[in-house]
Amino acid sequence: MDLLDEGPVPEHAREAKAEARAFAEAEIEPVAAEKFSSGEYPWDVLEAAMDAGLVAADLPEELGGRGFDVEQILAIGEEFFRADAGIGLTLMLASFGCELVEQYGTEEQHEQYLRPVAQNDQISGLAVSEPDTGSDLAGMTTSAEKDGDEWVLNGEKYWVGNAVEADWLTVYAKTGDRDDRYGNYSLFIVETDSEGYEAEHIPEKMGMRASKQGHIVFDDCRVPEANLVGTEGGGFYALADFFNHGRVVVGGHGLGLAAAAIEEAEAFVHEREGFGRTINEFQAVQHILADMQTEFQAARTLNWRAARQVKEHDNPGYWAAMAKTKSTETAVDAAERSMQLHGGRSIFADRRISRVYRDVRIPVIYEGANEIQRNLIYRQTPR
Ligand SMILES: Cc1cc2nc3c(=O)[nH]c(=O)nc-3n(C[C@H](O)[C@H](O)[C@H](O)COP(=O)(O)OP(=O)(O)OC[C@H]3O[C@@H](n4cnc5c(N)ncnc54)[C@H](O)[C@@H]3O)c2cc1C
């Protein structure tokens, strides 16, 4: 059975899905175990994905991208994460932060910064989280102060995808101290070879090992006035809107991982024998598989509904937060159950299921921990 079937995928996103699946089968699956084990940045796979037109594909066609919408990117995300979450994250984050520059930036910023990413000559990243807080977007302390025709950044960022590898980042920094704590933040484009920018990799992770995150220190890091993205003080609201799009796609990360967990469970129980039969013949095992299927299909249906709501700007925050929560937690549950069905063999480090088991811990946290999503769902419930 094809868990990631075309059923809920709109017609216009099916070609992107087919391309992503073909790429994942040819270029990601064969190296997934090796890249997970080495924990090295998968430059070769990233370059192959660029050649296949699957990196930064959401950037506008006039800049060299493919103008993919949220549904096309979700379709790609499901397929990449089914093949390997760490590599999938690297491929999908190679243009992270660009969407904000596209939406709020100037034409000059589009030409100077988006075009090279859209044409796959550069990669980017988005720096929001800090060592002391990730969830409280209005509690970040990295500051940007105006000095003549420059902004001077000081502070630290943590967990930033491609902090070491990227050519430039979109950085979220505090520019005011008003009572309205949501109006105190702005976005800046920062080139990673700027003076005062230092980044190093965070310690080795147990999951998504083929993706790399960094710890950044800004020490009087100067950027030109022209690198402010959007309006001064508008950063929090720009980010909140941007996350709706991202959360639908992170739901797809969960769906890809859940599909991988279910595939592994199905294959294993039909082969493994005990008590004179294959273990799939036990009704208790069948019920576990039935529950996994039901939860998966419920999550996927919700996620694709949410993608449409976000695309149509129709109460997007509520739907995106629900999709992210449901799909990523379905992945955690599916991985846990699949591990149990694998018995002792579940813990062999090189098994696909044990990689998935470690990877599923991450999407319930990034793009806003699921507790934050629940706050958003409650607050944005139509009443
Ligand atoms: C692999 C990976 C990649 C990442 N990539 C990026 C990136 O590219 N750029 C970037 O900026 N960040 C990135 N992040 C950071 C990520 O967004 C944060 O980890 C996340 O927002 C949570 O922040 P935190 O880890 O500081 O947890 P904290 O904010 O310290 O929260 C810890 C826990 O406390 C609980 N909690 C916190 N606040 C509340 C609340 N209000 N109500 C209820 N419970 C609460 C939750 O259980 C939460 O998980 C990445 C993280 C990971 C793991």
Automatic annotation (TrEMBL):
It comes from Halolamina pelagica. Residues 11-120 form the Acyl-CoA dehydrogenase/oxidase N-terminal domain. GO terms for molecular function: acyl-CoA dehydrogenase activity; flavin adenine dinucleotide binding. Gene3D superfamilies: Acyl-CoA dehydrogenase/oxidase, N-terminal domain, Butyryl-CoA Dehydrogenase, subunit A, domain 2, Butyryl-CoA Dehydrogenase, subunit A, domain 3. Residues 233-380 form the Acyl-CoA dehydrogenase/oxidase C-terminal domain. Pfam families: Acyl-CoA_dh_1, Acyl-CoA_dh_M, Acyl-CoA_dh_N. Belongs to the acyl-CoA dehydrogenase family. Its cofactor is FAD. This is Acyl-CoA dehydrogenase. InterPro entries: Acyl-CoA_Oxase/DH_mid-dom, Acyl-CoA_Oxase/DH_mid-dom_sf, AcylCo_DH-like_C, AcylCo_DH/oxidase_C, AcylCoA_DH/ox_N, AcylCoA_DH/ox_N_sf, AcylCoA_DH/oxidase_NM_dom_sf. Keywords: FAD, Flavoprotein, Oxidoreductase. Residues 126-221 form the Acyl-CoA oxidase/dehydrogenase middle domain. The keyword Oxidoreductase applies.
